[in-house]
Amino acid sequence: MSRIIRLVASLVLVGGLATALVAYATAGPPNHANRFEATFHETVQVVTNHVADYGIVQVILTGSGTLEGFGAATEVGGVTADRSFQPCGVPSESAAVTRRIITAEGTLAIRESNETCITPAGRVATGAFEVDGLFSTGVFAGATGSGTVLNVLTPHTLTLSGKLNLANDES
Fold it and tell me: Buried b / exposed e across 67-98, counting CB within 10 Å, b at 16+?
């Protein structure tokens, strides 16, 4: 009789562990306390220069890197820079950026507002970003968040830091 009780207890324990493993495996990716950390190495793909007639230059960049908690990622950024407005002297510029970050879990859309200044490190863009959950997909659909942008332009190294709140996150 004691063997049957031990066998039943063992089966209940194994069943409970199996259920826990299935629940863990099917859960969404960890939200890492809502931290947003991403780094990309970018390459300029297209430049449309209308500085002479409109004061505007547009650039399309692509990059590869990582989004913490989601692994390897690629990104595409569309930059519209206004060189007629020079927030930190000649030659500086203000820019609006639409960026999408593609991971295995979905695509995260963000919007940026930056200024590019000449520093001892060369041309550096700094600013702020906001997550666009409406245009994000997969686990990022409906997400919110914001943070800071640091883009060292020679070579192009983009760092995004801030908060990311997934729509299905219960915290």
Answer: bbbbeebebbbebebbbeebeeeeebbbbebe
Positions in the chain short of pLDDT 70: 1-33, 170-171
Global pTM?
0.78
Same domain as 153, residue 69 = yes
Q: Do 13 and 74 have their domain in common?
A: no
CB 127 within 8 A of CB 110: no
Asked whether residue 23 falls in the same domain as residue 78, the answer is: no
Alpha-carbon dihedral 88, 146, 37, 69, rounded to 10 degrees: -160
Taking only the tens place, the pLDDT of each residue in 103-152 is: 999 999 999 999 999 999 889 999 999 999 999 999 999 999 999 999 99
Distance CA 95, CA 45 (A): 17
